[in-house]
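To assess whether the prediction recovers the assembly geometry, we first specified each molecular entity separately, as shown.
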Amino acid sequence: MAEMLLFNALRAAIDEEMERDPTVFVLGEDVGHYGGSYKVTKDLYLKYGDVRILDTPIAENSFTGMAVGAAMTGLRPIIEGMNMGFLLLAFNQISNNAGMLRYTSGGNFKVPMVIRGPGGVGRQLGAEHSQRLEAYFQAVPGLKIVACSTPKNAKGLLKAAIRDNNPVLFFEHVLLYNLKEEIPPGDYVQALDRAELVRPGQEVTILTYSRMRYHCLHAVKALEEKGYDPEIIDLISLRPFDMETIGASVRKTHRVLIVEECMRTGGIGAELSAAITERFFDELDAPVVRLSSQDVPTPYNGALEKLTVVQPEQIIEAVEKLVHGQV
Amino acid sequence: MAEMLLFNALRAAIDEEMERDPTVFVLGEDVGHYGGSYKVTKDLYLKYGDVRILDTPIAENSFTGMAVGAAMTGLRPIIEGMNMGFLLLAFNQISNNAGMLRYTSGGNFKVPMVIRGPGGVGRQLGAEHSQRLEAYFQAVPGLKIVACSTPKNAKGLLKAAIRDNNPVLFFEHVLLYNLKEEIPPGDYVQALDRAELVRPGQEVTILTYSRMRYHCLHAVKALEEKGYDPEIIDLISLRPFDMETIGASVRKTHRVLIVEECMRTGGIGAELSAAITERFFDELDAPVVRLSSQDVPTPYNGALEKLTVVQPEQIIEAVEKLVHGQV
Amino acid sequence: MAPSRSLPHFDKATLPLTSDEALMLYEDMVLGRSFEDKCAEMYYRGKMFGFVHLYNGQEAVSTGAIKTLRPDDYVCSTYRDHVHALSKGVPARQVMAELFGKATGCSKGRGGSMHLFSAEYGLLGGFAFVAEGIPVATGAAFQTHYRRNALNDTSADQVTLCFFGDGASNNGQFFECLNMAALWKLPIIFVIENNEWAIGMAHYRATSVPEIYKKAAAFGMVGVEVDGMDVMAVRAATLEAVQRARCGEGPTVIEALTYRFRGHSLADPDELRSRSDKEFWMSRDPIKTFATYVLEQGIVTQADLSAIDQKVAELVDEAVHFAEASPEPAPQDLHHYIYAD
Amino acid sequence: MAPSRSLPHFDKATLPLTSDEALMLYEDMVLGRSFEDKCAEMYYRGKMFGFVHLYNGQEAVSTGAIKTLRPDDYVCSTYRDHVHALSKGVPARQVMAELFGKATGCSKGRGGSMHLFSAEYGLLGGFAFVAEGIPVATGAAFQTHYRRNALNDTSADQVTLCFFGDGASNNGQFFECLNMAALWKLPIIFVIENNEWAIGMAHYRATSVPEIYKKAAAFGMVGVEVDGMDVMAVRAATLEAVQRARCGEGPTVIEALTYRFRGHSLADPDELRSRSDKEFWMSRDPIKTFATYVLEQGIVTQADLSAIDQKVAELVDEAVHFAEASPEPAPQDLHHYIYAD
Ligand SMILES: Cc1ncc(C[n+]2csc(CCOP(=O)(O)OP(=O)(O)O)c2C)c(N)n1
Ligand SMILES: Cc1ncc(C[n+]2csc(CCOP(=O)(O)OP(=O)(O)O)c2C)c(N)n1
Ligand SMILES: [Mg+2]
Ligand SMILES: [Mg+2]
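The predicted structure of the complete assembly is given in tokenized form:
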């Protein structure tokens, strides 16, 4: 086992898969000579050349469509969204073509591609660079949506995503690239469709993903000291949800708290809350509670930004209320 | 009172508002000489000229951004999406600029614009022409989202949308343009943020919008004959929801059925279900039930297409189950 | 009335045709025309639904361009895709069955008129959104480039033909892809069918420089205009472009000046195009012109052509029978083809 | 090392300057430079956060172009927007306060470095996404066109200046807007600051024809290249373009060849640009060059310039004091400015 930074774990995943399969390639802005804005593809062009590590012009819609065409004809593109937000410009190619083309073509083509990059709210990056695209894309049929959260799962999930024969939207978090963790040596994959049980517990199920995992862990530390016993599950797969793992937890705790970074309205938590209530209504002792970002474009000002995103104290408070039946 | 077809009611709304306010103009593909694909702007260019009824090149992202710039500097653009789906290409301009710019600019600018056109599943139009963009756009802060459903509300709502100082995504339905109804003469507006009580009832609250209103009415006819008494509410506003009207109904019926045309995952019903469960959990005798389209790109084949979208029989069945506590 | 700009003249003598070639071109054009006429009939008889965009009048472009290709080359089309599919070799019965929404259709009844696909025949798709096929086609061309240059696969010399209209040429994706294709010398040919109209929008009202082929120069790419009513002119230009693409010398823009003989789709009242325009273009019917030429030149006989007419009529009838007799997709298969294994 | 293409030479004698004009241009450039240097200092002292893109080296473009405008004209910028805002007249204290995230900032602390806005000063915004400002600027120009042509407002002769980089010029929105602007003869000037790099992507690796001004011709628009290190060259070209726009004769593309003296943003290690390149361009520092020229020509004195240096230094210091002393936005105002009444 060796310690690795999250961005290097992603880099290792790409490197290993590119070695393993010559049809795998990377494209995007500054992925080559520059090495990627978050260094995920650092120096890979030296090993694989300028065609397999393809620096593109700033034309998100077209290079995404180009990746679709390449995927349809036998390659396995990995698109780096320098910031996932920029892929708003590629919405049509991602939804109509990456997402729906396999179905619309009656199975003629498959579209094995990964679209990865940093999402989420960073540190005072302003509204446009603080997008949470998982909310906008969650309704697109044919896409798989995954969010990694640790160096270990980042590597295993990215490798699985690259091998998957479907388009995978793969979210990293702009504030997690420098996390460090021991990870298993060599080749391993982690299933794209399975949630991770982060901390087993009895009293309440906390469902979260990406960076909010750490806010939850942080809160749970305080909660443990107060004698609470919450369960934390990292969703990993945002489309589809791992309802098996989630269901097992709900049947145990009967209380659900969703902690997400996307905005409340139309966020991941909305679908999750609805799905849980539908299937496990009789198991629930309280309504599913969502802690989400405020429904505002992320303000630049640091204090306002902090108010926009869920903080550990809110998680603590929400758990206490849920457990004490005050919801 | 005169009978009017829905598309003509929309046309009247635009015509009246353009007369009333010289800063109102229409832009989009084929809105001028061609009169609009669904005749909503038929012959208006003869009255208002080619600048106020502006035929654009097929460049959705740029003409949408152009409308944003025009709105910021004092005009009131109405964009016609020939089919709302085409505006996937304008996602970035709609979200970052139409939706967020007012906030990000700290109130420097307002963006009064309407983006309107046909949405929904038509008759065998294929996957790309059968989009339900309300699901994709519902999480964008700063947008108002409205769906009209009758000639009367189409006119009143569109006029209100044009006068609103914010960006309004205004959904018409491709299968409702030829609805006919008596509408009040002359100038009237309908509040953008109020749901419509379509049929009062005691047993269950059916929340729906756009074309599904008619499937619900259809189902309720049969349900009435069987002695049921459901309440139908047309949401009208998809962002934000009129939680006052919805809440009053839930407190009365204690059961909620959502009938929507968008796909289940991440649809309008997801947020609606979550919001209702959060606020009215103790009022609910059963989980909120969603009837949504299947999570598939709309197939061309007519029989499959029908299977994809909610049918009246499913509504009947769901109401019966809900009322009998079988959910 | 004359067209809004003068048509380039092609000297047919520069493209000698064997009788087999002539008949092949003729047959493909007649197939396109007959197939579309049959579609109109079937649409009005309620056999097919949705938006159906016919190709009548533009046959010289599909035939002239696609019939220069090998089976392993790619074609990318739009919602006006039936005839491109046929030229590329997708069997008429598969196309007709798709339009009928049948399980035997080339897209298994899921796609419909605007979404024809065939992996087997190298048809990357009919793309229903204007211009969205251009990047996809560029991606197929990139794939060839990749195999040749990153994988050292010397057999990688496939060419991609990307079709779209004058209206699409104002869309940003066109320019973004011109740049990438030229920058990386991708083996792609952008075939623009300039039929002067984008639904009800006259081309000259939508674009500041109506000569689309001239945009190529801004990207350092070869751009040519051809008479899109002359199958031989289109063929000659495409042969040259294919040659360039195959040997890695990069992309080409071909602007074919053409006209559609019907409304934009079968739902279009077609009220804006002038009668005189229509008459001018109808008088240049690519099938009649070509037939006259090859007969005059003695390359083929009237009997040859009549035999083809007959054969095509039967083929199209057979396609209808096949489509009618084919099963609908099974309801339980609604969720098939969402994810690949 | 010489730049990758030869720089156009401007004959300064063709643009006589009064001493007031010379001092105005000098002051604006020095303000831009000093302001940015101060930003770097403040950033490293933890006073501002996020991505901060400085403008050092490109001052001749902002000053040369924007200082030809009237107050009621519009400017549209990118994430590299501080200096455009200053040239357009937004007070330095408002810009600095915005960078500090204060309630007194031009975007009320909500926007930050990449999102400067000022309705009062006709700044349509800093747009953080590459190329997305181009359509917005086109819309402002359309608004002028509309008032003049649809509302018969003869006072409607405002001009919109739209700034963006070489990298943005490969984006589809650029071309879509060139087309619409030329088609409708909108009063807009596209000022492309070609600083040879888009973060770590060298322009020549991203584009098939590096001369961006040449794209204008494909749209029937005037396109010119200017030495972007020569404020007088930029001014002369812009004066001409503004004149054209004001009297309804349509848009212009101006490609200014320039260079940034710092990394892409303050987070950029800037490892890819060669030292010799940097040295070449540094030797052409637009402020020094201009100062030398106006001194040599006897248009101004060294004392004049020193007085300005002094004044600007005080102004920038004052801006910092103002920003520091300003209040944060109130927490309870988090939801302000989402909807307009
Ligand atoms: C993105 C998008 N915008 C608009 C449309 C509607 N639409 C379909 S065809 C068409 C005109 C296209 O004209 P052109 O490219 O010249 O092709 P033609 O139909 O003449 O073959 C338009 C506007 C669409 N399908 N997709
Ligand atoms: C749509 C979008 N894609 C990518 C980015 C990331 N990005 C920011 S600046 C930049 C380079 C832009 O280069 P150029 O247009 O030459 O302007 P310069 O920074 O040189 O002034 C990139 C790729 C972005 N902000 N928006
Ligand atoms: Mg056309
Ligand atoms: Mg640059």
